[in-house]
Specification:
heterodimer, A: seven-stranded mixed beta sheet, 13 strands, B: mainly beta, four-stranded antiparallel beta sheet
């Protein structure tokens, strides 16, 4: 399977714990995005990388959230001191650069976080 | 700031009817990209189309067609002769291209489409 891979697919944790999600993009894609989706809403942009550089972070991304993409390959999204409001589906997507601008996003199946 | 509005939260039609999903966008830039994605019940978002702001030609792909009108900032999506398998949530999205760095993709809230047998 050469698509975008995310794990774990589902994480249940207690409030206050830290969680980390991993995303493996399609190998030749320069761009990697993290989105969050709650029930009945569209994906909300969190952050994105071009290769290893984090180019933008949404104001939604509080200081409890951190994302990395070492070596420009896989990425991790860590949430520290989780809160119940963090419960959501965390989506990763990768994209090639098309004519210096964003091509289509290829999404993974998501990592669902439930904070008890 | 960029914004995508999908005013129709939920639509139900009977199979074989045509249905149009509306999308209105706001952007400060003259160069931008518009997208439609489908999210079936399985959950994974599936790319349908990408259109740049310089290309106002409408596009048809099988039963799907897209009507891009810059004058009204709309990028509507029509499914002809709908089928039950078209039931999904459909998202319209926008990416500005001010400079290479500022081109995150922003999604609308989606339209849930029910095709009734």
């Amino acid at each position: 399977d050469t698509g975008v891979s995310q794990n774990p697919r589902h994480k249940i944790t207690k409030r206050g714990q830290n969680v980390t999600f991993r995303c493996d993009p399609i190998s030749e894609h320069n761009r990697l995005y993290w989105y969050r989706q709650t029930l009945g809403q569209g994906p909300e942009f969190l952050t994105y990388f071009q290769n290893e550089a984090q180019l933008e972070k949404s104001r939604l991304l509080s200081d409890r959230f951190s994302a990395e993409r070492p070596k420009g390959s896989f990425s991790t999204l860590e949430i520290q001191r989780t809160e119940q409001g963090d419960s959501a589906m965390y989506l990763c997507a990768s994209s090639p650069i098309v004519l210096q601008n964003t091509g289509e996003l290829f999404f993974g199946e998501g990592s669902r976080l439930t904070v008890l | 700031a960029q914004k995508v509005t999908q005013a129709q939260t939920e639509i139900s039609v009977v199979e074989k009817e045509d249905v149009t999903l509306d999308c209105v966008y706001e952007t400060r830039d003259t160069t931008y990209y518009l997208f439609w994605y489908k999210q079936p019940p399985s959950g994974e978002l599936v790319f349908l189309i990408r259109r740049n702001s310089f290309d106002e030609q409408n596009e048809i792909s099988g039963r799907y067609s897209w009507n891009f009108q810059k004058s009204t900032s709309s990028f509507n999506f029509t499914i002809t002769a709908s089928q039950v398998v078209d039931s999904a949530v459909y998202f319209c999205a926008l990416s500005e291209a001010i400079v290479n760095r500022d081109d995150k993709i922003i999604f609308g809230k989606g339209t849930r489409l029910h095709i009734l047998p």
